[in-house]
What we know:
Structural class of chain A: mainly alpha
Number of strands of chain A: 2
Distance between the termini of chain A: 31 Å
Number of helices of chain B: 8
Largest sheet of chain B: none
Shape of chain B: globular
Strand order of the largest sheet of chain A: 1-2
Number of strands of chain B: 0
Oligomer: heterodimer
Order of helices and strands of chain A: HHHHHHEHEHHHHHHHH
Structural class of chain B: mainly alpha
Strand content of chain A: under 5%
Amino acid sequence: MIHSPYIRKPASVQRVMFNVLLALVPGIAAYVWQIGAGILVNIAIATLTAVAAEVIMLSLRKRPVMLAATDLSAVVTAWLVALAFPPIVPWWLTVLAVLVAIVAVKHLYGGLGQNPFNPAMAAYCTMIVAYPALMSQWPAAGTVDFATQLHLILGGARELDAVTGATALDALRTGLRANGSVATLLQSNTYGAVGGRGWEWIAAGYLLGGLFLLASRTITWHLPTGFLVGLGVTSGIFWLIHPEQFASPLFHLASGGAMLAAFFIVTDPVSGATTPRGKLIFAAGVGLIAYLIRAFGAYPEGIAFGVLLMNICVPLIDMKTQPAVFGHRGGRQP
Amino acid sequence: MSEWLMLLLGTALVNNVVLVKFLGLCPFMGVSRKIDSALGMGMATTFVLTLASAVTWVLEHALLAPFDLGYLRILGFILVIAATVQFVEMAVKKNAPTLYKVLGIYLPLITTNCAVLGVALLNVQEGAGFARSVIYGLGSAAGFTMVLVLFAGLRERLALARVPAAFAGAPIGFITAGLLSLAFMGFSGLTNH
């Protein structure tokens, strides 16, 4: 007798995670090209810490070490932490963040597949609350050479006013609070064609990788679409009402971590919603909260908080969006 | 109107009574194992908190302030809150016996829920008017209920997760509550405009 599923595909955790890593490569390449090779050092530090923490936690929990440590999931978390953080954070901040992600948010909840929160984003929130100054020093494109980046990462003295500009989002918000208008602010050197100068190329790299993930069916369309529509529509409404005070949807989609979030962060298969309708609601909620925090909140980037807040809602979203069992007409079966 | 709405949202989300002000933690940890009981507890607390905000405002402005009896405030407030809770308890026992059984000891404990007394005292401290006090109570209670239900949803899921033995139960609950509080810090600054 043959059992379902009848159509199989050779998907394993390792295969899925490898696809995600592969899809991150164009974004990282653009990062190195536009900002500098310091990010590679950060990625290396994060990866080493993540794998070490994973092995130690697995052996402490008496779980099969080799099987789980080679599934690459910890490496994905490490890369996301490195890419979401400023490229010149000191090494100990990266180590600390990865430890929060792997030890506290992943393994204390039972390891891969059990954690209710996105480890990388929980680490981002922890660090931006604990070290707000270090977490908001972003180098402008082409201002910090590799030697300086390495010096800063290794914990060198930070005299940064000369080299770091605010991010596109940060500069816009400071300018607007000082009664500037969007149109004149966007003329300044911080901005490129659609987003932050240099950073928009990185966003394009993430978009390319994201399309690969969609084409290879590693992720479904629901989550990226929900997020982009949620962020785009919310920023569009405010932009239509007050184009002088709120930046355009295109700017918001190309700035900050929007593209990274759309294809690599909200698509976390563990901590996000699992039903098709639930995925749309979850991702749209992240986009909405991210915009509100960007435009009105105290933090420059709201995606991480949006993800965490929607993670909290996931059990209820999944419960309320159960698809009807085939044969039942829309009846909500408990 | 929009000002009231902002106040309601502000008290429910930005200054959430549990996750930002850290009031009412006992029922937050105690009655969050099941979504149903969490919702019941939230509803009961909402009723008590809103009513108590109104009654304590009257007590403060009709009795304590005119006769300069400020030193009796905590005593007086507790008395009024206890009476309200007793009233709710009788109503729940008559109308929803199952919920009454589920809530058990936690229902009379609303009396000592520091969120209820805390909101009443904060109202006095801020010199809020009657309508503002009631909205403040309602918003706080709505935030309390929302967080309690969401937390219960998470804990129902945690009960099935393979949490390391040393962290199973209350410890992972506390860690989760901490992460919830971290997430709510994202709202900070949202209503200062």
